[in-house]
UniProtKB/TrEMBL annotation:
Organism: Candidatus Heimdallarchaeum endolithica
Lineage: Archaea, Promethearchaeati, Candidatus Heimdallarchaeota, Candidatus Heimdallarchaeia (ex Rinke et al. 2021) (nom. nud.), Candidatus Heimdallarchaeales
Cofactor or coenzyme needed: [2Fe-2S] cluster
TM region positions: none
Cofactor binding notes: Binds 1 [2Fe-2S] cluster per subunit.
Signal sequence bounds: none
GO term, biological process aspect, one: pyrimidine nucleotide biosynthetic process
Domain of life: Archaea
InterPro entries, per database record: Cbr1-like_FAD-bd_dom, Cyt_c3_hydrogenase_gsu, Dihydroorotate_DH_ele_sf, Dihydroorotate_DH_Fe-S-bd, FAD-bd_FR_type, FNR_nucleotide-bd, OxRdtase_FAD/NAD-bd, PyrK_electron_transfer
Protein name: Cytochrome-c3 hydrogenase subunit gamma
Sites where the protein binds [2Fe-2S] cluster: C256, C261, C264, C276
């Protein structure tokens, strides 16, 4: 790996690319039948004190002898020494992670990836659109915006899932509704596959007309399955959202997380990206200029 890559992607002061910190599980709580939220604390408190991340970054979580998986950080970046991960039981490693109890220890590498360029969002309205597990990284952006409320204009979050019992952080968002409204924060929760007395029905893109913020001065962050992005882009551009200010996360299959293994390569010779180090956050122009990004 070149010096330049080292400088860009490996956190300062970290010589070993695979440097792993031990973290203790403090709390586990069930979000849905498939998803659990884990609260972690660094065992070495010096490390914890200096460990910082940006919303949209991810960590590699390892269980010795089992494996390692990339997971987005879903908590507020303003918290020191603690962080949360919302983990869906998908296969071998995540099933073992779901068996963890408070007191157990995991290995954590990172944070990795570029994260959302939050400074570019300052002074503007913010529209966040999450589908399914996409709510995990966007929760971190949302909590950051709430913690730094004075830096943003009006804020709208759309949280969507197939079924009501799959909506991530739905109760938390509901509990915030009164405070949110008093601070010009709009919360929309929608489900696509069932009628629910508590939720709107339909895809997030079908509720964009309910968003109260002015598109002209807004930044948009989308996180969900790539197939949702194409129709969202078309609709947002049609509604006068500035394409330069539309950001998405792409959670391509990753292994190393640091630009070494090549598992997450995207594009061709004109535009070649590593989802782990050039992303996982990309802007609209990266997406349309890099072949295969939305496949
Ligand atoms: C940047 C990034 C952030 C992520 N953030 C989260 C998160 O916040 N919460 C969460 O629950 N999951 C997240 N994932 C997905 C998570 O990494 C995978 O679910 C996990 O690697 C599956 O490992 P496993 O051993 O449990 O499953 P496996 O036994 O390896 O596979 C089981 C199933 O999961 C799918 N899968 C495997 N690896 C990935 C992958 N990297 N991305 C998507 N699907 C995969 C396989 O196609 C298969 O269907 C993220 C992935 C990336 C790349
Ligand atoms: S995950 Fe290894 S190069 Fe991106």
């Amino acid at each position: 790996m070149t010096e330049e890559l080292h400088r860009r992607y490996i956190p300062d002061g970290q010589d070993n690319l695979y440097d792993t910190h031990k973290c203790r599980v403090l709390r586990v709580y069930k979000q849905t039948e498939m998803d659990k939220v884990f609260l972690f604390r660094f065992i070495d408190q010096e490390v914890g004190k200096n460990w910082k991340f940006k919303p949209g970054q991810f960590v590699e979580v390892s269980l010795p002898g089992i494996g390692e998986v990339p997971i987005s950080i879903c908590s507020s970046a303003m918290r020191i020494g603690f962080f949360q991960l919302c983990i869906r039981k998908a296969g071998r490693v995540t099933t073992k992670i779901h068996e963890l109890k408070p007191g157990d220890i995991v290995g954590i590498r990172g944070p990795y990836g570029n994260g959302f360029p939050m400074e570019k969002f300052f002074g503007r309205n913010l529209l966040l659109v999450a589908a399914g597990l996409g709510m995990a990284p966007l929760r971190s952006v949302f909590l950051y915006a709430i913690d730094n409320r004075w830096r943003f204009g009006d804020i709208t979050i759309i949280n969507s899932a197939k079924y009501e019992n799959e909506l991530l952080f739905a109760r938390e968002l509901e509990a915030m509704r009164d405070i949110a409204e008093a601070e010009n924060i709009q919360i929309i929760q929608t489900v696509t596959r069932e009628d629910s007395p508590n939720r709107l029905k339909g895809r997030a893109s079908e509720h964009l007309d309910k968003v109260m913020i002015d598109p002209k001065n807004s930044t948009v962050a989308l996180c969900g399955p790539p197939r949702m992005y194409k129709s969202m882009f078309e609709k947002l551009v049609e509604m006068n959202y500035d394409p330069r200010r539309i950001f998405v996360t792409l959670e391509r299959r990753m292994k190393c997380g640091i630009g070494k293994c090549g598992h997450c390569n995207l594009g061709n010779s004109t535009s070649w990206k590593y989802a782990c180090i050039d992303g996982p956050v990309f802007d609209y122009y990266d997406i349309i200029s890099t072949p295969g990004m939305l496949e």
